[in-house]
């Protein structure tokens, strides 16, 4: 049998309004009264009807999160961060998979789920500025990732150029002089362009070559793409002493090829990735990686949606999230990485 506010009020010997104030976390409740009501809530096992609460405010209590690759560990971890943050505000998250396809991103951004969601968090890959400029849907939209649109929407991203430069600086600081970049995209991909730019800028600053022969372009972002890119570099006669990969999955694929070719990591070739996914922390050689603050990105995305719903953020915001370089065995070696 469902426990009601009236049941809790009767058990605590207070009014229904007092119980409602405690449940809704109103400030003007004394600590003693809050504790008294909470004891009754716990004793009776009362659970608030979140659906009714949202409906009273004209909301559904649902935020949509549209991602390009649900199978990519980075996006899976990011989704978990969004879901956890939304739950703290009594919202649930509806996941959409766009596959990074422009037509699907347009469909999502134009609000085909607008009747059932209060806000949309979108990580676009192929969506164009004109696609968003034509958007007529009023559901709050928050963008994630590195695509720049110069439009009035909240946008959360890390500084990809600076992060890539930090990874390359680390490799150069270890004495590496021929640093390859794998993961430049054959098609348009702003994140890949920005990370390639960081790679090039840092090598140029150090007076080292950043020629096209050290760049391997790919069509995808997975293990196989990284392995294929590494194979092409080696088969072309290039033997870099370091590799910076677009993401961790590609770095892990490249490491497999290096191992098969009899090259030691990091003694012969140091490898650094991007995203700091869990898989990279548990391989035979743990992976050095740029670690975006995924928890902060998820939290900021949810808070931005809620700020739009309540009118607390009238101006669009460009929010830069933090990152750090996590140095592990793939660049430091086993002994050094343990220090």
Strand order of the largest sheet: 2-1-3-4-5-11
- How much of the residues is beta strand, in percent? 15-25%
Q: Compute the average pLDDT.
A: 88
**Span of the ends, CA to CA:** 57 Å
Shape: elongated
Kindly name the structural category: alpha/beta
Largest sheet: 6 strands, parallel
Give the C-alpha Rg: 24 Å
Low-confidence stretches: none
Number of strands: 12
Helix and strand element order: HHHHEHEHEHEEHEHEHEHEEHEEHH
State the helical fraction: 40-55%
Number of helices: 14
Characterise the protein shown here:
- The chain is elongated and about 80 Å long.
- The chain has 339 residues and is an alpha/beta fold.
- Helix content is 43%, strand content 17%.
- The model has no long low-confidence stretch (mean pLDDT 88).
Q: Which features characterize this protein?
A:
about 350 residues, six-stranded parallel β-sheet, about 45% helix
Strands, helices and their partners?
Layout: H1 5-12, H2 16-23, H3 31-44, H4 50-56, E1 62-67, H5 73-88, E2 92-97, H6 102-109, E3 119-122, H7 129-133, E4 141-144, E5 154-157, H8 160-173, E6 179-185, H9 190-205, E7 215-218, H10 223-235, E8 242-245, H11 248-260, E9 270-274, E10 288-292, H12 294-310, E11 318-320, E12 323-326, H13 329-332, H14 334-337
Parallel strand pairs: 1-2, 1-3, 3-4, 4-5, 5-11, 6-7, 6-8, 8-9, 9-10
Antiparallel strand pairs: 10-12
Helix pairs in contact: 1-2, 1-3, 5-12, 8-9, 10-11
């Amino acid at each position: 049998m469902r426990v009601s506010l009236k049941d809790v009020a009767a058990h605590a010997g207070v009014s229904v309004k007092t119980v409602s104030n405690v449940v809704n976390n109103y400030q003007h409740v004394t600590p003693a009264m809050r504790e008294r009501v909470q004891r009754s809530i716990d004793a009776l096992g009362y659970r608030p009807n979140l659906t009714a609460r949202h409906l009273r405010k004209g909301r559904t209590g649902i935020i949509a999160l549209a991602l390009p690759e649900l199978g990519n560990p980075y996006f899976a971890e990011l989704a978990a961060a969004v879901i956890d943050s939304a739950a703290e505000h009594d919202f649930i998250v509806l996941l959409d998979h766009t596959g990074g396809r422009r037509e699907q991103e347009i469909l999502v951004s134009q609000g085909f789920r607008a009747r059932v969601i209060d806000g949309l968090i979108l990580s676009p890959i192929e969506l164009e500025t004109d696609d968003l400029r034509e958007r007529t849907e009023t559901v709050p939209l928050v963008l994630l990732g590195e695509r720049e649109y110069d439009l009035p929407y909240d946008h959360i991203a890390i500084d990809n150029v600076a992060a890539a430069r930090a990874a390359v600086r680390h490799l150069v600081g270890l004495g590496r002089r021929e640093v390859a970049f794998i993961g430049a995209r054959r098609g348009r991909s702003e994140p890949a362009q920005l990370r390639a730019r960081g790679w090039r800028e840092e090598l140029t600053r150090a007076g080292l070559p950043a020629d096209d022969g050290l760049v391997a372009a790919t069509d995808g972002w997975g293990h196989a793409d990284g392995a294929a890119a590494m194979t092409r570099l080696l088969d072309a006669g290039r033997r870099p002493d370091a590799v910076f990969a677009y993401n961790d999955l590609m770095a892990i694929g490249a490491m497999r090829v290096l191992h098969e070719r009899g090259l030691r990591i990091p003694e012969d070739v140091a490898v650094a990735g991007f995203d700091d996914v869990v898989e990279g922390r548990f391989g035979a050689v743990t992976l050095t990686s740029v670690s975006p603050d995924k928890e902060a990105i998820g939290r900021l995305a949810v808070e931005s949606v809620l700020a739009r719903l309540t009118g607390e953020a009238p101006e669009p915001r460009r929010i830069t999230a933090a990152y750090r370089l996590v140095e592990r065995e793939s660049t430091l070696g086993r002994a050094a990485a343990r220090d």
